[in-house]
Amino acid sequence: MTYRVMTVCTGNICRSPMAEVVLRDRFESAGLGDRVTVDSTGVSDEERGNPIDRRARRTLSAHGYRVPEHRARRVTAAELAERDLVLAMTSGHARALRRIAGTDVDVRLYRSFDPSAPTGGPEHLLDVDDPWYGPQEVFEQTLAEIEAAADAIVDHVRDALGS
């Protein structure tokens, strides 16, 4: 069985491809690389075909991640139906995904897996802010938020796989 994870942001050039790269790395390190696939999309078509943002690439590379070729794309209902876990970067993305997907897709906020993230409040408190509008340092903060939840996501998937 292959477990399928999708990360989703707005345009699929910053947050979701950063999360895709980090999660792939963590699944490989956990020995699950052959059992888990990770991809990313956006809820908007505005960046379709564009590569990962240069600042996101620079941040990932500086932290030792291998950044593969990437072309932004918009999520489809068919893709959502084929995923076991869909990780939205914001509550707005989660609402859009739930509208697109209907009820049979497991859509969660990415940071809901971060053990240090707020609990019990409104969903938007778990948003990963869009770094696109900020300087390079904002991409560092985005990566820190993504990394903070990654191990718990791996644990969740490991449990789902029963290994």
Spans of at least 5 consecutive residues whose pLDDT stays below 50 are: none
Shape: globular
- Over the alpha carbons, how many angstroms does the gyration radius reach? 14 Å
Give the strand order, joined by hyphens, for the main sheet. 2-1-3-4
Q: Helix and strand layout, with pairings?
A:
Elements: E1 3-9, H1 15-29, E2 36-42, H2 54-62, H3 77-81, E3 85-88, H4 91-101, E4 107-109, H5 136-161
Parallel strand pairs: 1-2, 1-3, 3-4
Helix pairs in contact: 1-5, 2-5
Mind explaining what this structure looks like?
The chain has 163 residues and is of the alpha/beta class. The protein is built from five helices and four strands, in the order βαβααβαβα. It has helices at 15-29, 54-62, 77-81, 91-101, 136-161; strands spanning 3-9, 36-42, 85-88, 107-109. The protein has a four-stranded parallel β-sheet with strand order 2-1-3-4, with helices on both faces. Strand 1, helix 1 and strand 2 form a beta-alpha-beta unit. Helix 1 (15-29) crosses helix 5 (136-161) and helix 2 (54-62) crosses helix 5. It is globular and about 40 Å long. The mean pLDDT is 96.
